[in-house]
UniProtKB/TrEMBL annotation:
The keyword Phosphoprotein does not apply. It comes from Flemingia macrophylla. May function as somatic storage protein during early seedling development. CDD domains: HAD_VSP. InterPro entries: Acid_phosphat_B-like, Acid_phosphatase_pln, APS1/VSP, HAD-like_sf, HAD_sf. This is Stem 28 kDa glycoprotein. The lineage of its organism: Eukaryota, Viridiplantae, Streptophyta, Embryophyta, Tracheophyta.
Amino acid sequence: MKVLVLLVAIIVGAAHECHGSEHGASFQIFPLRMKTGSGGHYIPEVSCASWRLGVEAHNVIEWKTVPLSCEGYIGNYILGDQYRSDSKTVNQQAYFYAKTLNITAKDVWVFDIDETSLSNLPYYAQHGFGVEPYNATAFNEWVELGEAPALPESQKLYKKLLSLGVKIVFLTGRPLDQKTVTVANLKRAGYNTWFKLILKDTSIYHGKTAVTYKSSERKKLEEEGYNIIGNIGDQWSDILGTNTGDRTFKLPDPMYYIS
């Protein structure tokens, strides 16, 4: 028995020290053991990555701000190659799906705007990448500049869908009084044509969740005889609810949460 215990200890110790090298790569191996101390000890890089996974999987919900300790992690992610790669994968799958369809004149694809079609990274880079509480006044001042750039991967999907003959519908939580600047910003960023641009009428949807608002507007599209073949957004509230379309696609966004 003592020999068996010693052998297990040696194996676990070796696993802790060694690194994998399959395919020429090197991987650090973390031993499977309980965390120690009051509440457990967390390595910041690991816990922030796990938090982001929970956000994207919609296991972490109704959160207000990015954890303060994760500002650097989220900033590095959102400005780095991984965010672009994740966005590319989502948009590629959307296009691969669209190519399999027989497009008709009644087929539409719903695009969210903020963090889907347009990027507000210039704003969030100055506001802690979501660490700071949402400030409607400051954010609306940014929107009114009309300078948000396009998300390159989403714009590629937009152009490819147009080439397939799909009608584009922009469905955004921006209020109606931002229509003029939103139109100008979309065109400035390279989105030059669309079938419909739907902004939120706050006189109708005041106090309503984004899920309720977007579900209702998608229902109107279908009642007009249009078939929503695809629906893409960065928030779960963009793709949950009713009348979500034949397929939905979730882009990464660990900077804020909209219910």
